[in-house]
Amino acid sequence: MTQLIERSFRERIILVGVTLPPETPEETEAHLDELALLVDTAGADVVARIVQRRDAPDPATFIGKGKAEELRELSLTVDADTVVFDHDLSPAQQRNLEKLLGRTAISRTEVILDIFAQNARTTEGRAQVELAQLRHLLPRLRGRGTAFSQQGAGIGTRGPGETKLEVDRRRLLRRMSRLESDLGAVTATRRTQRKGRARARNRTVSIVGYTNAGKSTLLNRLTDAGVLVEDRLFATLDPRVRRLDLPGGEAVLLSDTVGFVRKLPHQLVEAFRSTLEVVAESDLLIHVVDASAPDPDAQIDAVRVVLREIGADAVPELLVFNKVDLVPDVDLPPGAVAISAVTGEGVDKLLLTVADRLRALERVVELLVPYDRGDVLAALHREGEVLVETHEESATRVRARLDQASGGKFAPFLVAS
């Protein structure tokens, strides 16, 4: 099936989708719709799309020789600069397609990497994106020296820069090693900061969700953070941490993170691991869902895939359906909250729910601490919230609020209820 779209500016792109079991043709079309948004965000225009059904990818060209010839004819007809596959291509498939088509052939991964390269603002963000791009480039060096020596401005050419794309494997590996070392130092600093917050008994809550679900808008609504909000994919790459005061008076640290997306490149997840560690170490995740999206459940599943990959799937999660100002009648799953980060509708209930969820993670206990165990008493003050402290004949009686992780440590001193 072929669909033509009339446009006459910017880089001209043909999208290629392949329906592989157990995917349905409708799902393939929906995935191509999202890929079109990614291409537009990257600064190019979709001029056509082509879809195929296969039982398995063709080892040489992914789509088979006949379909590749059809794609070549379509490329000539619409004067396309690049073809973009929704699936990842092997280095051999990419080389074979470019030789046959006479133009660049890339995948969804390169488009996402390109968007990240354009949006990275901080030194750390740029280093993370460059490392991800180089990891993706490394297995594709063989046989592509000519292509990489040509300076261009299309999707897949931004980020590391033309000079770095011309280097040999050894120099590329040295560059990757340097980036990994630099990011390792950042990781160590972040961990030290998080340990300091843990000692201060600051609860941490992370906002996660599909890209463009409204996470930054919610952060601004809750904390007056003044974060720039744009209606575009991956507008946020650099993490922000703000203080949030809950209705009961408790203060927590609220983090905004990079948006997730279906088939988020593994290289990006690895490169951004230091940034995403805050998610895995959070006490609670506010999982923001775009209630106006065509398939919110698919976006929820995509986010959870990434959460599993970074080891955050065991962190308690609160589903928050955003943009109810656009979709008033949202069918909420049990325990979820409906809000509009733009208008403020439902935000008070969200704050109450967050406070309740965090309190549910703690328990109030009573302990008897012998006078010669001052270390235990100090640890209680450090790791919990001491509510009442009275001195008896042989011990200090303490009533304290402890989280589940710390509770077991003080088990020998618990007073049976």
Which strand order do you get reading across the main beta sheet? 7-8-6-9-10-11
At the first level of CATH, the class of the largest domain is Alpha Beta
Helix content: 40-55%
What's the N-to-C terminus distance? 70 Å
- Helix-strand category: alpha/beta
What is the name of the CATH superfamily of the largest domain? GTPase HflX, N-terminal domain
SSE order, as H and E? Answer: EEHEHEHEHHHHHEHEEHHEHEEHEHEEH
Largest sheet: 6 strands, mixed
DSSP strand content = 15-25%
In total, the number of strands is: 14
- Overall residue-averaged pLDDT value: 85
Uncertain runs are: 1-8, 145-151
User: In total, how many domains does the architecture comprise?
Assistant: 3
- Fold-level CATH name of the largest domain: Rossmann fold
Question: So what's the overall shape?
Answer: elongated
What's the CATH architecture name of the largest domain? 3-Layer(aba) Sandwich
* Radius of gyration, taken over Cα atoms and rounded to an integer in Å: 26 Å
Tally of separate helices: 15
